[in-house]
Amino acid sequence: MKFKNYLTKLFILLIISLVPITSFGKNEKKITELKISIKLENAKLTAIFSKLKNEYDINFSYGQKIIEDPSTYSVNYQNILLTNLLNDLASKGHFKYEVDETTVLVKKTKKLNVQQTTIGTITDRSGLPLIGATIIEKGTLNGTTSDFDGKFSITTSSSNAILIISFIGYQNQEISINGQNNFNITLQEKVADLSEVVITALGMKREKKALGYSVGEINDEKLNLVPQENVLGGLSSKISGLDIRRGGNDLNNETYVYIRGKTSLTGNDQPLVVIDGSPVGDTNVMGGY
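Structure tokens predicted for Putative outer membrane protein:
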């Protein structure tokens, strides 16, 4: 009887001794040996830690700085060591960690600003490059402009800088770099401001108030109000300051165009005519259009 009781106590003792081995949730390995799989898009550190806690019973301890950190990260790993994931996140999220048995202690570190060169292309909705668009690093005076192909290059003070893209007649757009170095940016037109934007003779968009000269406007309805033999006839007496005269009553006589009177510093009072972006020196060219 005593021997039987002894065996019973020994059996109970063995069961109790096994309990600590299986008490670490779903994994029986040390945290440093644990392999995990995780996939999240644009998640904060707290969301990543919470998912690991729910799926692998891993406890995380962190302070207010981690909770308030607005940065997001995308992770997609299959069957990798937990320590590899933590090392990757630590380099991006600027924190350090320590493993204490079943708990990972996380502490925020000071972020080091690293300069980064970013390139990109700015276009409108139709894919045409926007020449002279302004690119400014937010909160600084650091900036540049796009070239004739809409391309730009800017070196920012941080890999997490924000770029402000602006162009006359278009809505401003803010781009967060987040370590990326190449962007294709499409700006949207400001519908409310279109009436304040002038397409100059050379095809460049400028605000009317930014031009150093006056602008005369005429629409197709006014131009075709009275049938004329050419465009110059249709413009006659319809734009302030524009004087159009015929050399006589014959249809073959030349047509003369004067802007704000017959005065010139160079002795040539003929205006510059631009058709579809191409300057034309002789006003008679307009006669056949």
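The helical segments are 2-22, 45-56, 64-68, 82-93, 220-223, 231-235.
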